[in-house]
Amino acid sequence: MAGREILIAEDEIKIAEILQDYLVKAGYQVSCLERGDQVVPYVKKEQPCLLLLDLMLPGLDGMEVCREVRKFSGVPIIMITARVEEIDRLLGLELGADDYICKPFSPREVVARVKAVLRRVYAPPGDKTLVVGEVSLFPETHQALAGGRELKLTPCEYNLLKTLMSHPNRIFSRNELINIVQGYDFEGYERTIDSHIKNLRKKLAEHLPGPGVISTIYGVGYKFNSQPR
Ligand code: CA
Question: Residues within 5 Å of ion ligand 1 by Cβ?
Answer without folding.
Answer: 11, 54, 56
